[in-house]
């Protein structure tokens, strides 16, 4: 269960927050092709996989993307060492949805 920014189990013990990473590609127009796709990685906290996917799609829509294909979902196993993800991870811990778009 969530209590503020903390996750607690049924015994009241504090657990490390679960940060999901969702990997996919998006388009800012309909009928996009593989060549016009923008790869994205999304970091966020969610209650479960379904919640993480729903929040991801909502965030992508709010960023103006009209189509998305989500390929993978996983759980981060701690703070990332790659500087590309450090700020996004901190945002996710704070309860935000962080979208990293790899535009060329």
What are the key terms here?
single chain; 104 residues; alpha+beta; 4-stranded antiparallel sheet; 3-stranded antiparallel sheet; 7 strands; 24% helix
Question: Summarize this, please?
Answer:
This protein is an alpha+beta fold and 104 residues long.
Task: Please characterize this protein's 3D structure.
With 104 residues, this protein is of the alpha+beta class. It has one domain. Helices cover 24% and strands 36% of the residues. It contains 2 helices and 7 strands, in the order E-E-E-E-E-H-E-H-E. The chain has helices at residues 49-62, 83-93, and strands spanning 2-3, 6-8, 14-15, 19-27, 38-45, 67-75, 98-101. Strands 6-4-5-7 form a 4-stranded antiparallel sheet. A 3-stranded antiparallel sheet has the order 1-2-3, with no helix packed on it. Strand 2 (6-8) and strand 3 form a beta hairpin. The relative contact order is 0.24. Residues 1-6 have low confidence and may be disordered.
The helix count comes to 2
Gyration radius, rounded: 15 Å
Largest sheet: 4 strands, antiparallel
Structural class computed from helices and strand pairing: alpha+beta
Query: Can you tell me the number of structural domains?
Result: 1
Q: What is the typical, i.e. mean, pLDDT?
A: 89
Provide the β-strand percentage band.
Answer: 35-45%
**How many strands?**
7
Helices and strands, in order, run as EEEEEHEHE
């Amino acid at each position: 269960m969530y209590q503020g920014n903390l996750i607690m189990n049924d015994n009241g013990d504090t657990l490390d927050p679960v940060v999901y990473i969702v990997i996919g590609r998006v388009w800012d127009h309909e009928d996009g092709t593989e060549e016009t796709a923008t790869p994205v990685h999304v970091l966020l906290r969610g209650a479960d996989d379904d919640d993480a996917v729903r929040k991801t799609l909502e965030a992508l829509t709010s960023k103006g993307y009209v189509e998305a294909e989500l390929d993978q979902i996983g759980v981060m196993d701690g703070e990332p060492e790659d500087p590309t993800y450090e700020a996004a991870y901190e945002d996710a811990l704070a309860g935000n949805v962080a979208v990293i778009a790899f535009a060329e």
